[in-house]
From TrEMBL:
One Pfam family from the record: Ank
Keyword Repeat: yes
Protein known as: Uncharacterized protein
Highest taxon of source: Eukaryota
Lineage: Eukaryota, Haptista, Haptophyta, Pavlovophyceae, Pavlovales
Entry keyword annotation includes Glycoprotein: no
PROSITE patterns attached to this UniProt entry: ANK_REP_REGION, ANK_REPEAT
Length: 248
């Protein structure tokens, strides 16, 4: 099994449906994959927003185990995500059944900045940990090198979130280092991540950088120097303008 599969981050978007009414569910998931808010509304709420289609609920999962909110977050359909949260009553912290990940986990790892901001505005739990390794959304963004998502999450999170720990003690910096995400390593350092913390195995970010799968790909002998030297890069371009109060 590939590492990405084991961590629950890469999911096929094949529309395959099982159940008593496969045709109806297939039409529903086709609308979800297209981000067709009108048809999603019709299935979930009915013609007059008070007559939902029997069997179609926000708990229904596609063939890959993702509920509607999660699938929309993976694909990046912002308007449909907003509809689910603002009108259809979706739980922003709903967990999918396979890896116990939230929509925020998936939006963060995919780099969908607008979805991340939208989920934050509706109260997404940034400390939500999945069932794979206790990874938070910030760990996922660091693993896949989503620098702008990293900045947005840290702008919304309480102090100390930059060094949030997973089950085995890994920080987001350790994840970025292990996977060879050089830009994310430098960004996290610039935003205050600790170089000296170690995980449950006693490994710090340096050790993980030199022994992870990204080392051979990127020649990360230089990574050790980068981790030990204070960063001087300017990441101000990533910083978002402050959103108006209540702006969803």
């Amino acid at each position: 099994m590939a590492a990405s599969d084991a961590e629950g981050y890469e999911r096929s978007s094949t529309v395959v449906v099982s159940g008593p009414d496969r045709e109806k569910e297939s039409h529903y998931w086709a609308a979800v994959y297209e981000g067709d808010t009108d048809f999603i509304r019709l299935f979930l709420l009915g013609d007059d927003d008070n007559d939902p289609e029997p069997g179609i609920t926000l708990e229904l999962e596609d063939a890959r185990g993702l509920p509607t909110l999660h699938r929309l977050a993976v694909i990046g359909h912002q308007a449909a995500v907003h509809f689910l949260l603002a009108t259809a009553g979706a739980d922003v912290n709903q967990r999918e059944s396979t890896y116990s990940q939230t929509a925020m986990h998936l939006a963060a790892v995919k780099g969908h900045v607008e979805i991340v901001e939208l989920l934050c505005a509706f109260g997404a739990d940034l400390h939500a940990r999945d069932a794979v390794g206790g990874w938070t959304p910030l760990h996922g963004a660091a693993r896949t090198g989503q620098d702008e998502v990293i900045v947005r999450l840290l702008a919304r999170a309480p102090a100390g979130y930059v060094d949030v720990r997973a089950t085995r003690g890994d920080t987001p910096l350790m994840r970025a280092a292990y996977w060879g995400r050089v830009s994310s390593v430098r960004l996290l350092l610039a935003l205050g991540a600790s170089r000296t913390l170690t995980n449950a195995e006693g490994h710090d970010a340096n050790a993980l950088a030199c022994n992870g799968p990204g080392a051979d790909l990127l020649g990360l002998g230089d990574m050790r120097v980068d981790l030990l030297r204070p960063p001087n890069a300017d990441f101000s371009a990533y910083l978002p303008a402050r959103a108006p109060d209540g702006g969803v």
